[in-house]
């Protein structure tokens, strides 16, 4: 951020800008989640499979998010590491999405299957979500916003 932008954030004239890397298996609902977080007049009605990655934006009450929405396809996974900075204490938000499906496992079970309790060096949180209805998404974004605001800039 340039000096003027920082000043605008300090004065409350502008939201602080943050970058988010969105990763996950293909077809898990990443693009649908991001789309649902945009204002309704900016949402697309027809979500196509992501090729490579796309850059999306949405806002929370005090932050302006730029999201790198990565394709989950194997041949694009080597792109991920270019956007991921290993040694920083970056918060990780997990969505256990498609909770509306009859066979969906609970978010507790998902966190066990992914061994999330082994993540000791970064704050993490898991939310059950239904991206079609938009359920569980705000809880996740609120957590992310809290985490980012407690990190010193
Ligand atoms: N039932 C259900 N379908 C979902 C949910 N989220 C996404 N989908 C559907 O899953 C498919 C893949 O979604 P998409 O956002 O393209 O997945 P991505 O590949 O991870 O970006 C689409 O047909 C979505 O409508 C959800 O929470 N519940
Ligand atoms: Mg996608």
From TrEMBL:
Superkingdom of this protein's organism: Eukaryota
Record-linked SMART domains: ARF, SAR
Pfam families from the UniProt entry: Arf
Keywords for this protein: GTP-binding, Magnesium, Metal-binding, Nucleotide-binding
GO MF term list: GTP binding; GTPase activity; metal ion binding
Coiled coil regions in record: none
Binding-site residues, Mg(2+): 31, 50
InterPro entries: P-loop_NTPase, Small_GTPase_ARF, Small_GTPase_ARF/SAR
Annotated GTP binding sites: 24-31, 72, 97-100
PANTHER family: ADP RIBOSYLATION FACTOR-RELATED
Protein name listed in UniProt: ADP ribosylation factor like GTPase 6
The species this protein was found in: Colobus angolensis palliatus
């Amino acid at each position: 951020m340039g000096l003027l932008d920082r000043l605008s954030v300090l004065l409350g004239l502008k939201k602080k800008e943050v970058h988010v890397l969105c990763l996950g298996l293909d077809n898990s609902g990443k693009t649908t989640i991001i789309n649902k977080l945009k204002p309704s007049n900016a949402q697309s009605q027809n979500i196509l499979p992501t090729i490579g990655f796309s850059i999306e934006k949405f806002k929370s009450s005090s932050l302006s998010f730029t999201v790198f929405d990565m394709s989950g396809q194997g041949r694009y996974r080597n792109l991920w590491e270019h956007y991921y900075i290993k040694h920083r204490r970056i918060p990780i938000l997990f969505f256990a999405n498609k909770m509306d499906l009859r066979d969906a496992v609970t978010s507790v079970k998902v966190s066990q299957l992914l061994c999330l309790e082994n993540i000791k060096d970064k704050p993490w949180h898991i939310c059950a979500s239904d991206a079609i209805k938009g359920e569980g998404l705000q809880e996740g974004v609120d957590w992310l916003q809290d985490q980012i605001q407690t990190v010193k800039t």
